[in-house]
Amino acid sequence: AASARGGASSLTMSAAATDGIAVVGCGVLGTSLCRQLIENPRFGSRSVTGITKTTSKHEQIKSTVGEDASSRLQLSTAEDVPSDAKFKDVVFCAPPSGFDDYPAAVRNALETYWDKGLGGCFVFTSSGGIYGQGDGETVTETSPTTDPATNP
């Protein structure tokens, strides 16, 4: 469901409004992306905001990304991102299993967080987890899939 957005937040959104990167969904992929963005000199001056559903993994995300990231990494729940916060670049990493209406969640992130007028981009990521576990062979769109109930 779409968040009301606008609750109290400790986020400083001035950098986000001009040059920030939002990572929506900080599971394994999103957390790894946050770490890579922080470590890569190419993104050295940009703030990174990890947007999650709850705060339950925020300490783990901070630990994985690293202490050196504390000045550039901000974590927030979707509810606590200020309603006027927009980002130059947004990467959507959240899995379908976390939403009743996944296409609406992607659309909401696109419309809510991304400021397309800043010249950045919106990136949608997807998992190959629907494909069966193999022995290192190449996976294509025609590879056999697995039942999501047995391979979440």
Can you describe this structure?
The structure is a single chain. With 152 residues, the chain is an alpha/beta fold. Helices cover 25% and strands 14% of the residues. The chain is built from four helices and five strands; from the N terminus they run αβαβαββαβ. A five-stranded parallel sheet has the order 3-2-1-4-5, with helices on both faces. Strand 1, helix 2 and strand 2 form a beta-alpha-beta unit. It is globular. It starts with 13 loop residues before the first helix and ends in a 28-residue tail after the last strand. The N terminus is likely disordered.
Q: Main β-sheet, in a few words?
A: 5 strands, parallel
Q: Which class do the helix and strand fractions yield? A: alpha/beta
> What's the helical proportion of residues?
25-40%
Computed over alpha carbons, the radius of gyration is: 16 Å
Beta-strand residue percentage:
5-15%
Which sequence of strands runs across the widest sheet?
A: 3-2-1-4-5
- The overall average pLDDT, rounded, is 84
Question: Which parts are unreliable, with pLDDT below 50 for 5 consecutive residues or more?
Answer: 1-9
Supply database-style keywords.
152 residues; 5-stranded parallel beta sheet; 25% helix; globular
